[in-house]
Amino acid sequence: MYARKPVRRGKVAAFVCLAAALFAFFCSPKAVFAGGRRTADGGQLKIASAQNGHGDFRRAGRDAAGLDLCRKKDGILHFVQNDKDYSITVAHQSRQWRWTERDFAFENAGIFAARDAGRRGLTYAEKRDNIRRARAAGFNAEQTAQYVFPALDAKLDVLGRAVDIPPTDAKLFFYPFNNAQCTTHNAQLKVNSKFVIEREKEGYRIDRKRFYADLLRAFLKSPAPSVGLKFEPVPAPVSAKALREFACFKSAFVTSFSGSGAERRENIRRSAASFNGRRLEPGEEFSFNKSTGPRTEERGYQEAKIILNGRFEKGSGGGVCQTSTTLYNAALLAGMQIVEAHRHSLPVSYVAPSFDAAVSGGAMDLRFANPGPGPVFIRSDFLEDTLRVELYGVKNPYRIERRSEKLQELTDYEDEFLVDTEGKYRDVAPYRGERVRVTYPKAGLVSKGYLRYYAGRKLVREVCVRNDRYAPQNGLTVEGTLERPAPPPEPAPPALLLPEIRKYDIMNPWGAYSLYSALSNSR
């Protein structure tokens, strides 16, 4: 009998605690902004965050409209089902969008909806009163509109995707091939003979601050207001003025191939055309081997002299090293970041020591990166006897010059003799017993390459960029292996053919004259 009393008391205590917890949870304000505006009665008016994420005006357990936070369930259902109390029409040109309270539906159910309804108001009059109280409390149009009409920003996001006009960036066009393309381009701004710019276009987006103010002003006058959309300009991120800075001349370098044959000239022309008009974005890396691709006969490259194992021999793509060297020097003078560059094993004649750039199919490549804030444009110009490479972009802060220094001459070369069993030099020395000098001995050298930076005429600094050793070139004499063919027999002299002469013609003076004429004509 007495054992049941403690259990009964425990149940009562648990019920009381649960009821108190529920009342505290559903009826207590949750302020997110500690600062607010004091009202006349000394209460603290704050913005709080309800369960659905919308702002809330509360004072001492009641909302700004003076409504009880724990509104009854039947009032909730009447409010949800009745969407004709007020409506908002948004107009733009010939298009219209109509919003009712159903568009701002509850995100939660049950008692959470009751609490949200308490702060939002159930009728047009209540919402109108909420607007007036919030504005009188010092809140701006945006805060007030977001409080009275939850999810209004989401609605404007949907409208923005339908009516906003995004801006169009200015565009820079590079024409390295000829000036005719540049002059015929339908652009609004011509920078120089190589560049044209299409100007940017402003965009437009909904002016939300004006929309909030217009909506509140119209809603206070009518339960079915119509609000027109107004727009604010949106500037383009990239302007024509900014793009002009990327069309400045940075550097140029020229090499000559006047003594080259037709095959080598074709290889230089083809490899230079592979990167003509190339654009490098900031941080982008350029690879010469990737630009040209495999330099094979199937791709149009021909056999010409290359340096192989310390000798000048014929190979596919001979001459492309002069193209890579010309591009390398232009990149140095433009301030590019050199990632990979290789020297030749022998000195070359078309550039100073320590400023050459040898390339091969896989072992050696020329690579450099664009370290600048804007794009860099590459132009190659193949002339009759010269190759010119130019770089454009942001103007260089310094004028850059090269300096090559020869430190030591290497004379430990030899004069070699070769019997051409493989037929490499058959076009020069094809026959046995015939010796032909192919190359003369040439001294090697040790050298350094420097870059000098000038501000006007003043030398700011000098930087050593290369330290190279070029091997001496041995002389080479070649003898062929073919037997010299026997000379063809000399042809016999033609027989002298005389006309038929009769005896009486000799005795006749006129016959003797006829014989003399016949002999003269036979010669």
Question: Can you tell me about this structure?
Answer:
The chain is of the alpha+beta class. Helix content is 28%, strand content 28%. The chain has 14 helices and 27 strands. Strands 1-2-3-4 form a four-stranded antiparallel sheet, sandwiched between helices. Helix 4 runs antiparallel to helix 5. The longest helix is centred in the N-terminal third of the chain and has 23 residues. It is elongated, with a radius of gyration of 47 Å. The N terminus is likely disordered.
Key words describing this protein structure:
four-stranded antiparallel beta sheet, alpha+beta, 523 residues
pLDDT < 50 stretches: 1-7, 22-83, 106-115
- Write out the strand line-up for the largest beta sheet, numbering strands in chain order: 1-2-3-4
Name the helicity range.
25-40%
**Could you tell me the mean pLDDT?**
78
Largest sheet: 4 strands, antiparallel
Q: How many helices in DSSP terms? A: 14
Secondary structure class reads alpha+beta
Terminal residue distance: 167 Å
Q: Tell me the fraction of residues in β-strands, as a range.
A: 25-35%
Number of strand segments: 27
Shape: elongated
What would you call the quaternary organization?
A: single chain
Using only C-alpha atoms, the radius of gyration works out to: 47 Å
